[in-house]
Amino acid sequence: MSDSRRTAPDLDETDLALLEQVEADFDVNLETIADELDLSKSAVHYRLNKLKEEGVIQGITADVDPLALGLELTAITDVMVAHERGYSEDIGENLLALSGVEQVYYTMGDVDFVAVSRVQTRDQLNDLIDRIVAIDGVNETSSKFVLGEFENDRAVSSNLTSEAREAVLDGDGSS
Amino acid sequence: MSDSRRTAPDLDETDLALLEQVEADFDVNLETIADELDLSKSAVHYRLNKLKEEGVIQGITADVDPLALGLELTAITDVMVAHERGYSEDIGENLLALSGVEQVYYTMGDVDFVAVSRVQTRDQLNDLIDRIVAIDGVNETSSKFVLGEFENDRAVSSNLTSEAREAVLDGDGSS
DNA sequence: AATGAAATCGACCAGCA
DNA sequence: TGCTGGTCGATTTCATT
């Protein structure tokens, strides 16, 4: 389960602007970013390091196009489990461990888990659903086929409501 | 809608291994990767460039921890729309445009869209759902609260079944 | 597709506001 | 604490094979 970081660091507007930049594209000169933000290269570097150390930036990664690997079929599977025990964590891990499963959410309500999967062929999809059902504790599943995706490029920082932005900037200042 | 690339490039095992590396962590020396793959730095660089040009690598980005921005509440919302027209695309865009919405899937079945959202407070969540319902064409929604996430770090390349790996490596060789 | 050399960029340091 | 400017090592680029 994601259980990242304890300390909520307070960020200023420059940090937010920087995050928006690098969350969209890190494959540029530091100088380009520096110009954009009216900062020196060193200052950008300094802030980036801090953000990494604080865990705000969890990592720098390459984004791979699933279609380029032939993963043309996407499905969303609702998973219902037998509710007796505290096995939720295990079942979540088991779901995620299945190859093809990209993301697993543990949810409140009638549905216990939502899994997003990508595969190449209908056979693989069939097989994957079989493997989900075979997990110990899984009672029932219901899958939706994904016809299209609208993606935000995962831009967390550029996707805040104005209230949310303010709340981020209102650090408690206790550092 | 994601409609990325036309040409399905054929990749070899080195490309796949390289993708797995950089998809997990790009914040390292090229030499580290080169050592890992028994290649020269230049060769690594050459292949990375090719992968970027081919669109296999869509970009290099910083991954920001939503929790660090106070986005502690995640919801998955099923959206049902009025089915008369071909407005699906518009509705998808409208959903994604709402701040707080991170990802939108267009699905087959009883549910037409699935939206994943992140916000800081219950008020923001309430407000977001109101804004979803207010979109023209949206009929009904049903939301699940997310208690936990199991994430694959979005590692597309390291998440292939053995069949899928083989299918990727069986390029048609037409380049 | 891969190499090595030349130009460029980023990481780090000491010092400063 | 956050930033500056400069240095050195690393990376990108390009001509060459």
UniProtKB/TrEMBL annotation, chains A, B:
One of its GO terms (molecular function) is DNA binding. It comes from the Archaea. It holds the Pfam family HTH_24. Keywords: DNA-binding, Transcription, Transcription regulation. Residues 11-72 form the HTH asnC-type domain. Gene3D superfamilies: 3.30.70.920, Winged helix-like DNA-binding domain superfamily/Winged helix DNA-binding domain. SMART domains: HTH_ASNC. This is Lrp/AsnC family transcriptional regulator.
